[in-house]
Design goal:
Blueprint: H1 5-10, E1 18-21, E2 25-29, E3 37-43, H2 58-74, E4 81-83, E5 98-103
Antiparallel strand pairs: 1-2, 2-3, 3-5, 4-5
Bound molecules: guanosine-5'-monophosphate (5GP) and zinc ion.
The site of zinc ion (ZN) has 6 residues, from helix 1.
Length: 113
C-alpha cells in the first residue's frame, strides 16, 4: 500500500537491517529496540492489523510464527517474547501487521504486559 512504511521496507524503498526474507515475509531489526534483540517480522502483503485478518490469511499467519521460531533458533534465544499490538488502544503505531520478537534484557520485564 502506498504511504505504508512497512510496505516500503518490504519493497526495499526504505532501508532496513534484514534478518530473514522469503517470498511472503520479511524480518528486520526494530529501529528503536525495546530489548537487546528486537526483530519485526512482517507479511509482505499489506494487512492492516489482526482486526483485518481473513480466513485466506490463516496459512500466512502460521508462517509468521514459524519464521519467528526459526530466527529465535538461529539467534540461540533461550526464551523470548512475541508481541502483536492491535489498534491504537493496543499500542499499534504502524498499520501493517507485524510480529515483535524480543529477547534479552527486556524493557517490559520491569513493566509487565
Ligand atoms: P507497533 O507499535 O506498531 O506495534 O510497532 C511499530 C514498531 O516499528 C516500533 O517498535 C518502531 O520502533 C518500529 N519502526 C517504526 N518505523 C520504523 C522504521 O522505519 N524502521 C524500522 N526498522 N522500525 C521501525
Ligand atoms: Zn503496508
Amino acid at each position: 500500500m502506498e504511504d505504508c512504511i512497512f510496505c516500503k521496507i518490504a519493497k526495499g524503498e526504505i532501508p532496513s537491517e534484514k534478518v530473514f526474507e522469503n517470498e511472503n515475509l520479511l524480518a528486520f531489526n526494530d529501529i528503536n529496540p525495546k530489548a537487546k534483540v528486537h526483530v519485526l517480522i512482517i507479511t509482505k502483503k499489506h494487512i492492516e492489523s489482526v482486526k483485518h485478518l481473513e480466513e485466506i490469511d490463516a496459512k500466512l499467519i502460521g508462517e509468521l510464527f514459524l519464521a519467528a521460531q526459526k530466527i529465535a533458533k538461529e539467534k540461540n534465544m533461550e526464551g523470548y517474547k512475541l508481541v502483536v499490538n492491535v489498534g491504537r488502544e493496543g499500542g499499534q503505531v504502524v498499520d501493517h501487521l507485524h510480529l515483535h520478537l524480543l529477547s534479552g534484557d527486556f524493557w517490559f520485564n520491569k513493566h509487565q504486559l
